[in-house]
Structure formats: C-alpha cells, structure tokens
Amino acid sequence: MLSEVSFKKYFEESLDALCFVLDSGAIEAVNQKFLSLTDYTLKVLKKNGICSLEPNEKNGRKNYFKFNDFKKTGRYDDVIIRDQNGSSLTVDLAVKEVHFGKNSIFCFSFREPSPQKDISEELQKKHLELKRAYAEVEKKNYELQILQQTLVQAGKMAALGELAAGLAHELNQPLQGVRGYAQELQSVLGEKSKTEKGEDFFLKEIISNVDKMAKIIQQLRIFTRKSTENFEWVLITDVIEEVLKLFSLKLEAKKINTIKNFSFLDLKVFANPVQLEQVFINLVSNAIDAIEEANNKKREIHFSINDQSQFVDVLVKDSGCGMNDFQQKKAMNPFFTTKEVGQGTGLGLSISYGILQKIHGSLLIESQIGKGSTFTVRIPKDYRTLS
Questions:
Q1: Segment 298-321, tens digit of pLDDT
Q2: For the domain 4-113, what is the CATH superfamily, name and number?
Q3: Class assignment of domain 227-385?
Q4: pTM for the full model?
Q5: How far apart are CA 204 and CA 210, in angstroms?
C-alpha cells in the first residue's frame, strides 16, 4: 500500500501540474509544479478557487477553461487557462472524478504541450497549405493550357481569315472575266445562242452561276474584314440581312426557313457593325445546329424587332432541340458547349455576350428541351447616353 508520506512525495514531485478541487470549485490542494506553471500563490488560489484559471476573454478559441465545463472525466487538448499575470496559456488537461460517499473531488492534471506535438501540428498545417497551393497550381496550369489552346485556335482562325480574303480577291477577277466572256458570246451569237424553245439557256446558266459565286466571294470578304473600334449608326435590319446572306446557301441546303417580323424597319443603333454582325452570326449558327440536332419537321428561325424606348430588342427564335436549366445557366461561360469534341469551341455565346456588355447591352435565353430556344438581344440605341 502507498503510505501517506509516499503519496505526498509523488504528489509534489509529479511532472504534471496537479490540483485537487471540490465540487464547489474550492481548491483542496495543489503541487509545486502547478504553482510554477500558473505563477499563482496558494493563498490566492485558496481564496478564489479554480475559477482563477478561467480567462477573461475567449480569444476566439472554443476550448477555453471554465470549471463547470470540465467536471467530466476525460482528456482535453489545447485548453486555454489564465495565469497570475492574466496571460493566456495553452495546456493539455486530464480530469479524474473521485467519489467519497455523496461528495466528489476532482483531480486536474495540467501539462504543457510537448515540442514534438507543436512540431507535428505545424507540419500538418504546412502540409495542408502545401496541398492547397498544389491544387491552385494545378488549376492555374489547366487554365494556362486552355488559354494556349485558345490562342492556337485563334491563330489558325486568323490565318484562315487571311487565306479566305486572299482567295476571294484572286477568284473575283477570273470570275468576272468568265461572266464578261459569257455576255459577249451571248451578244455575238444572238439568236443562235437560243434553244429550240427560244431561250439562251446555257449562257444564262453560266452567268447565273457566276453571279452566285460572286455573291459568295463578296460575303466571304465581308466576313473576313478586320473589326475596328469604329462605331457608327447602323440599321438593325441591315445587320440581320447581311448575316442571312452569309448563311443563305447553308439555310437553303438544310431546308431551314427564315421568318422575319420587322415591324420597325428604321430602328438604328450606334454600334460597331462588324461586332454586331458577329453576335447574330453566332446566334444563327447555333440555331442551325440546334435545328439539325432536333431533326423536326418544323425547321424555322424567326426574327423580330421591338422598340423598347432606349433599347432595341431583337428576338431570334429557333425550332431546335432546346436547352435544360443547367445548359442555360452555363451557356454564356467560355468553352462551355454541348457539341461533340471538334464540333464547337464553346466561345460563340461568350463572345456575343462580351460584345453586348461593352455597350451596356444584354443577351437573354428562354429555352425548353424539345421546344426550341429564344435569344433576346437587347441593344442600346446609343450606349453613350446610358449612365
């Protein structure tokens, strides 16, 4: 059996700061380690009890010491206590409740955290920071790869534009020569050029096809011309008509009807005509793809123009496959596309949205799966007058 003398010696020489506390909070006994740790005198502790250790402020920590919160057997890490000077001190705490009949006494064992524990916690903290930094680097690397791909694609498109512009210029002259010679031949032959039905069918076809090719070349030259920051007053109807000319052959080949409800023919906006055309080029191109995917009998694109005081609303409605809520929310995001790899960059609507934002315009989407989509392009008549 452990004698009283041996117990007192163990109590005083213990490496832990020990404190015996009654249920009322009164301190029954403390060892020298406890006094050294807290800088309290036994007289002060006897007077104020265990509540002396309760911090005046919580210091933003949940685990600050409060006697009533720790009257339960167990181990508690990183507990904040207050020393004699009012400073905060972090300790590990072990609590043991001992019953003496109806009374209880609590043995509190305080121990300063070991340096190894501090190092371990610091390492864990640094590991977490490193993990987050690595994730951020991975994210930036992915964004860089996307940007590089975009720049490569933009370079290809720029080269293609220059090539198309050069081809348009080179092809235009020989085509006009073919047309001129066909007209001369038509004039020289006169009646001899006509068929049995009295029509100069072959020469008319040559001239007609040359005119078609000339129109294609003209649209190609318009499409590839450089966009500048020059703004001017533009008729909305003219912009839409130019875009439809560009897509005329594609619309005809895919048997898609365009229906124009131009109640307001004289509405003008102050804008960059090339950039404005780009907005509607993207919308018409998407509408064609949506109609092709839906493969419905009804193959139509509707255009309507509304006067909205300081703005002009242009509605582009298609009978395509439509979009779900998720697709509508993501539609304006760069690189978001529902098309298969290689069939779309996901930049069309993003670019259109950016162009309109610059002039305080907007682009709204209303769509349902299987019921098509309606894009409302809101363009200020003169963005300079808007605050």
A1: 899 999 999 988 999 999 999 998
A2: PAS domain (3.30.450.20)
A3: alpha beta
A4: 0.46
A5: 10
